[in-house]
Model the fold of this input.
Amino acid sequence: MATTYSRFPIVLTEGRGCMLSDAEGRTYTDFVAGIAVCNLGHAHEGIARAVADQARRLVHVSNLYYTEPQSELAEWLVEHSFADRVFFCNSGAEANEAAIKLARKYFKDRGAPERFRIITMEGSFHGRTMATLSATGQEKIRKGFEPLLDGFDIVAFNDLEAVQVAVTGQTCAVMLEPIQGEGGVLCPSQGYLEGLRKLCDKEGLLLIFDEVQTGMGRTGSLFAYEHFDMTPDIMCLAKALANGLPMGAMLAKEEVAKAFTPGSHASTFGGTPLVAAAALTAAKVLLDEGVIENCQKVGKYFKDRLQSLKLKYAFVREVRGEGLLIGLDLTCDGKTVVAACMEKGFLINCTQDHILRFIPPLIIKEEQIDSLIACLDAVFEGLSNSSKE
Done:
């Protein structure tokens, strides 16, 4: 395999719910969920059944034809969001690529081809393709792939004035994550997103939300934009959409979506019957079985428990996030904490070198939170003692 990942020295072989097992027989409580993907946990019976049933009927026929699972999933997404149309693909990067292309095509069709530039945010992460890494506001992601694609103007996150200053006659859209995940679980300041909506309306710009990580219940609402008094024009989903099977989706309002005409964009594997069947099952479980309510309740409990650690240890700077997208900002190296927790049977994630990111399955229980807090407490105690020596 290509050496593009710094992998941990364990081989995971089986999972159920929030638990994983490795080839040595060790078990782990999973607070990573495939990087905010397995919202319903591992080996979910309903999804396994949906995949098996669909695999016996129809796996792939291409988008030259209609299929029932894809049509039903599109209908569900439209019924539960601001959008009128859905384009299916295979990943978050592809969904964001589709959004970028749609924004440009929308203005081209309106007789304004000069409007092709998109304002994005520092600290953002939109993907690894050439267009999406060019849109990403992190130097470490972009480094080594220059020259980057033209058409992206990166400004400070949470700074409405910076966006206003960056708007020119060439600007077509503003694109951002409503909560930056990989960037460090950074939440918008009060009124920021609503202000962006007003600014886009005033300047005639499209507003694109990258909800690849925040969508599908992760923040305690089906979509993160629902926390705010506004809606975007375009929204991108992936990660948890099919609970581990590869699927992305770009949703848009009708006025914007109609810029995509036959032949203007495509995806061979986008929304196959197999993956759409899994996604439709996952979507229904989220709403029908109290999963989002559990995310709200346990997410608040989790943040409260983490706050107790902040009060106890000086190197814990901040607890932030929504639902079960939670960040713990440290003044010390977070990777050391991740390794120590793994040794004790807990899988957690570190981003930006010093921010612990907790993104467990949305079915996580309070007693599993308590076990992790006890683990973190022990690890932090060791760090605290070693710093005094």
Remarks:
- The two ends are 42 Å apart (CA to CA).
- The chain has a mean pLDDT of 97.
- The longest strand covers residues 316-322.
- Residues 72 and 280 are 7 Å apart (CA to CA).
